[in-house]
Amino acid sequence: MGKGRRMKKQGPPAPLDESKITILKKRKAAEAAETEAAPKVVAAKKRRRSDADEDVVTKKDAPKKSKVNGAASKLTGKENKKAVTAKKQPVPMSDSEDEEMDDEFGDLDDVSEGSLDSQDGLERLSDLEDDEDDSVLDSDEEDHPREAMFSDDEDLSDAEERLTAANIEGLSRKLDLQRQAEEEEAEQELQESAMQTNIAGDRPDVFADETRPDGLAPDLQLLRQRITDTIRILGDLKTLGQPDKSRVDYVDLLLNDICTYYGYTRYLAEKLFNLFTPMEAFAFFEANETPRPVVIRTNTLRTNRRSLAQALINRGVVLEPVGKWSKVGLQVFESPVPLGATPEYLAGHYILQAASSFLPVMALAPQPGERVLDMAAAPGGKTTYMSALMRNTGCVIANDASKPRAKGLIGNIHRLGCKNTIVTNMDARTAFPKAMGGFDRVLLDAPCTGTGVISKDAGVKTSKDESDFLRIPHMQRQLLLAAIDSVDHASKTGGYVVYSTCSVTVEENEAVVQYILRKRPNVKIVDTGLGDFGSPGFVSYMGKKFDAKMALTRRYFPHRENVDGFYVCKLKKTGPTPIAKPTDDTTSSADRHPRRASSKASSADEEVIDKTPILDEDGAAMDFEGGAFGPFEDGDEDAERIARAERNRLRRKGINPKGVLNKPKKNKEEASKTEAKAESTQEEKKEKKEDAKPEAAKKSSKGEKKTVTKAEKSEKADKKEKKEKKAKKASK
Ligand SMILES: C[S@@+](CC[C@H](N)C(=O)[O-])C[C@H]1O[C@@H](n2cnc3c(N)ncnc32)[C@H](O)[C@@H]1O
């Protein structure tokens, strides 16, 4: 990040506010009216965005056009961007989180009152001051080179004053430039809204295609104008729509324009569009065109936020605390030095981490001394945060299926000084809880399609197709089942799983959680503890209903919170996952003895349904089958997927799916009984066989057997070669 790249304030933006732009428009209109009467807009004035003379779109046209298109202009992305930068709103934190944070960091008593508290525009600095009250402290002095930055006798209040003074200049410069940028944007907005649209009376005719004046490439500015016009029409179809056109026609036109303008495939554009109202969808697509703020997370194993801020300010970095919701995040507005190469970075005092990435870890809230699993950990932003929250105690198993990515993970763990972490490189779907289980908490930051981070990876716009939205949610379901089965429901301190993705689609979020609730009624959704920041998860979507508690899960959007799109769900395991018979003692202790249980669980893991009633807060048994929400997977798309998965599952077990699936329900029930019986007989046989083996033979693994066979083979080959040589010699 250089001086030229200034970022907008992190955190929840003010709601879309037209007043600012309207004032500017009015001012402009008044100016123009004074100089000359507004002439009619002529089609010849349509210009491409890329035209060199674009920025000289005649200001005299503005008053008239801004009047015509006033409503449409309120939808433009520029304004949305402004809304994003609008006034800072403090994000309320839940009491529990405050407590957690207090516990986590303790209090810093010897910090003086800040000297800057009333200056307008420097409110952010007081955040930094507030921060001192509960500043990051670490008991491990060895890992705390704060002394390196401040001499022992240095007064903290002096240090703070210097910190503040150094930051004032940068911040005020930043604010000036921000204001200037906003005014420029407003100006551009004005010019944009002055563009010609095809108006037929009060009903704009957006279907007359004038977006390709040369008949070839589309004029982007006209296209954008048509997008905003279509959205305006969709907002009041009765009054503004053409009599012979339906809502479907307008939505179809809008989607095509969005695809052309922003470069999405029709499939993905439609999927994302369906999450919002047309107006909000436009804001979302717009937000995906601009980068999110640069945020760094203080590594509290090595320093605290104030010391880090001071060190970076000394290097000319302009920054401020990320918001009330985090005590370790710093938003960087401007940096004359590369943030990934400062001495502080190399010494592991911070990690570059998107603000939304803090949230799943905050929701998981790992405690010192616990055993925690990070199932898909690379490159380690969340692992290292967990390690810091646990103050390098207990144990974090950081797993990732990708070897090259696991190397990056190891690098970060070393750089940030995490000493309670073990890295594993396994496919978490099959490895857990087989290899290890009984964790106090598990984080599953699942691999996803990345629809929440399109501003970082525009490739998502065209690379994700239908097959990805079948394959990836399937994998997410498998991973989440494994995560749940790896948690110890009887953990004294935990028993929690946090599921997160950087995707905004329902298939990867609520639908996955809904599936899990059906398969594992021994878990329930609990509050993330992240307060009001973000929006609640969907409780229904396109006619399908989800668990009412889905509202406790949180969604974050680039256009609403100015963070990467993210989803966070916290689950509490309320009981064990029985493997075969729910009443069986051995199997019901699977959670505490995952190794023992895993052999029995095998591939049946996905199929086990614990029918033990789960009680809600009022002690009433919850109806998971048909009450508050319908079976999401029985919908069109999911039905096929489930049928396919079911056929494959039966085939794996050696059962002909045709014989079972095409039969009436009664037969199916019988078949599943036979299946269960066959399964348990097989398991029993296996166990008996295992028991009958002598101890030494039991130890010998399959791999060892293979090696012996290979050795035997090579011995035979040697003998054969010798024989052949002898035979050759003899013949000579
Ligand atoms: C969203 S990224 C994780 C980011 C990480 N939690 C962080 O904060 O830095 C998803 C990760 O899942 C890993 N992954 C994909 N499939 C996996 C599997 N079956 N088991 C374990 N990890 C997997 C990918 O290699 C990728 O690193």
Write a concise synopsis of the structure shown.
With 732 residues, the chain is an alpha+beta fold. The protein is built from 30 helices and 17 strands.
Account of the 3D structure:
The protein contains 30 helices and 17 strands. With 732 residues, it is α+β, with helices and mostly antiparallel strands. Among the domains are: 19-87 and 180-285, no CATH class; 444-640, Rossmann fold (3-Layer(aba) Sandwich); 653-699, no CATH class; 701-732. The strands form four sheets. Strands 7, 8, 9, 10, 11, 12, 13, 16 and 17 form a nine-stranded mixed beta sheet that branches. Strand 8, helix 18 (403-415) and strand 9 (421-424) form a beta-alpha-beta unit. Helix 1 packs across helix 2 and helix 8 packs across helix 14. The structure holds S-adenosylmethionine (SAM). S-adenosylmethionine (SAM) binds next to helix 17 and helix 19. This is Nucleolar protein 2.
